[in-house]
Amino acid sequence: MTFHDHKNLPSLVNRAASQLASAVTPAEILEARDAASLGYDAAKKAARFAKKKGAHDEIMANIHRRQADFLEIEALAKRMLADEYDAAQERGEVATDGRPKTVPDGNGIPSAADVGLSRKDVHEARLIRDAETADPGVVRRTLDEKLASGEEPTKAALRKAVVEVAKQGLSGRPASPSNKNPLYRAPTRAGAAWTHLYGTCRALSEWGTQDENIALALRGVSERTDDQTSNIAAVRKCAATLNRFLEEL
Question: Residue 157 has what pLDDT?
């Protein structure tokens, strides 16, 4: 996929999401995971090409949103795989140490590789599952924060956040980034929500300080030939949400 094919990304997102929604067996979940992973790679290539060609910020933002969607679908698939794999181990259908075993009837108990998963796959799937258990919504929130700040949502950034949250959940307490700071308090979900809100507002405010951006956006509304009612309604809803927050504050 090239920059010129970036308009196909939404359909690829819908396809991967549909595959996961209808997945019943582990094999079908794996297919959805792989579809999301391939879609992410395609979006990343499109973003790289678009940046090289000096594409407009709107196009880059759209591609990045699709990257985030693919990452969310892939993460959800991995979480489902972790549950499926652990349940299979408990039932004795998969070897517990990753190596196939021979049972009395002569049939072997398959390893992770036999069912299409590497040890790394299982480890990462469990990390995502543990992180979401410890802090529900951490995957989507991490991706949204990257988008709000104008950064590219990447697998590396998501994995970093997931590993940290998973470690905190397994230890039973938040891990301080510095043992020398006794006043440190790990962010709560409420704190993360506030970070997300002001981060989004800060990014929009910085964008709006350039008069050209506002003028371009207004021109974009008039240039579009399709119905913009829902898009304008979304902007008004955003303003209403911020006003409600300020009133409560």
Answer: 93
Residue type, 77: A
Tell me phi and psi for residue 102, to 5 degrees: -105, 130
pLDDT in tens, 135-153: 888 999 999 999 999 899 9
Class of residue 139 by CB neighbours under 10 A (exposed 0-12, middle 13-18, buried 19+): buried
Is the CB of residue 47 less than 8 Å from the CB of residue 101?
A: no
Count other Cβ atoms within 10 Å, centred on residue 232.
Answer: 11
Cβ 46 vs Cβ 3: under 8 Å: yes
Separation of alpha carbons 162 and 14, rounded Å: 24
Q: CA–CA separation, 114 vs 116, rounded Å?
A: 6
Tokens 């991706």: give the residue. Answer: 143
Task: Give the orientation angle of helix 189-208 with respect to helix 138-148, to 10 degrees.
Answer: 20
Provide CB contacts within 8 A for 230, sequence distance 6+.
none
